[in-house]
């Protein structure tokens, strides 16, 4: 099989020295990748410089990215020249990316200028519309400083929503066995399964691995693998999760 795996966590730049990221280490993706390789499959592994990576070998291609936009571009490039039999989308993708950053003083200055541009303050309805419009315009302010000065008491960071990478995978690779991932925090098993099923249906996945951050500690990593029929299987470690995913993907591919 020709397998694509995404792993690690994307990073969104604030300036040239600061960024927003998450705590994903890529250890589960590494475990899955190495098991696919041990089974004789080819693996294209898209990850981040900070994440752990599988041991290099001839059937493994590693591609490093940083941001969600770079991930999207890299995936589309890969889809342009090869077909994948399985896609394991385990990467923790940032929901938002930075739009611009302003000091408190600069933000107030810009907002005051926008609100008083017509020479009067509008009524409550007009004020809300003006505020939304002003925030949209201020958000498009071009970041001038390569490194944001640290002298300001309060820093305003404008974020905009990233595209959902998982939403494009089925359209781009309609015949691949697609495995999605969903991480929640402090929910019941029933809620974890319910949300996992909704992700599976919404993105037309074959399987979704649902896990709870509170159930990931050291060698313990509880994961619930959900299939398109709503059936579930539970694993208790990263190794068990990897074994379960590889087995199910191979079975699904053989039965297509």
Task: Give descriptors for this structure.
7 helices; alpha/beta; elongated; Phosphopantothenate--cysteine ligase; CoaB-like_sf; DNA/pantothenate-metab_flavo_C; 256 residues; two-stranded antiparallel sheet; single chain; 12 strands; ligase activity; eight-stranded mixed beta sheet; Rossmann fold
Please, could you describe this protein's structure?
The protein is of the alpha/beta class and 256 residues long. The chain has 2 domains: 186 residues, CoaB-like (Rossmann fold); 65 residues, no CATH class. Helix content is 36%, strand content 27%. It is built from 7 helices and 12 strands. An 8-stranded mixed sheet has the order 5-4-1-6-9-10-11-12. It has a two-stranded antiparallel ribbon with strand order 2-3. It has a two-stranded antiparallel ribbon with strand order 7-8. Helix 1 packs across helix 7. The longest helix has 17 residues. The mean pLDDT is 90.
